[in-house]
Amino acid sequence: MHKRSTYLLATRHPWSCFLFLLPLLAAYEGGILLLGGGHPHTFRNGADTWLRWALEYFGLSQLYWAPLLIAGIFIIWSVLRRKDRPADLIGVETGMVIESIAFAVGLWGISQGLDPLLKRFGLLLYSALLIVLRWLHISMLFAVALAALASSALFSAAHHVGPYGESFDNYVFVFRMLAGLYFALLYQLRGFGIAVGAHACYDVVVGVVVVT
How far is C-alpha 39 from the geometric centre of its chain's CA atoms? Predict the structure, then answer.
């Protein structure tokens, strides 16, 4: 198999994704505990908060259940796919880091270019998306697009719900929905690990820009 094709498949393998996400997950949980003090929930993102709400419904309220669940899923998935586990893990992980940084910088660049456009035409774009969803027919051709739109809307809405959610802002909501589409496309084309890695790197890039 061609070396490039081998790499593209390797980055989507659950074992590669697990090893790539493990330090990110540890840094995320450690950072929340360090910065959050007695109120770590105020620093958690929307998806994490939703997951913990679901776990609390089943009586699993301890902090370790969410990362343990994620790790468990990837470990089981990796065991099931152990026969085609990538050989050059160092090369694969290095490539995933480079791709994540590149895609994160790309999204930041897009956000800078779209900022004036969304501030002026955010409501119009939002309404257009709603019209498209109303007229969209579910079929194999549109299944991926519909799933991306739905997940993007949830991705954006997750930042505004719950007791610690942000106040609703049209511009912020529309941009985050577009960012959700961006990450959904990354997931579809490059796999879960790189999509999450790009999200984490984007947060770091934005944080550095804001601080400086």
Answer: 23
Q: Would you tell me the crossing angle of helices 14-36 and 192-211 to the nearest 10 degrees?
A: 30
DSSP conformation letters of 140-159 = HHHHHHHHHHHHHHHHHHTT
Q: Read off the tokens for 81.
A: 């796919």
Q: Kindly state the tokens that stand for 177.
A: 């929905």
Buried b / exposed e over 4-27, threshold 16 CB at 10 Å, is: eeebeebbbbbbbbbbbbeebbee
Contacts 24+ apart (CB under 8 A), 102-110: 103/186, 103/190, 103/194, 103/198, 103/201, 103/202, 104/198, 104/199, 104/200, 104/201, 104/202, 104/204, 104/205, 105/201, 105/205, 107/179, 107/182, 107/198, 107/202, 108/202, 108/205, 108/206, 108/209, 110/182
Predicted confidence pLDDT, tens digits, the chain (212 residues): 566 678 988 999 999 999 998 988 888 777 777 776 666 666 666 566 667 777 777 787 777 788 888 889 899 999 999 998 998 899 999 999 999 999 998 888 877 766 555 555 564 544 555 555 556 554 544 555 666 666 677 666 665 555 545 666 676 777 777 887 888 788 878 888 898 888 888 887 776 665 55
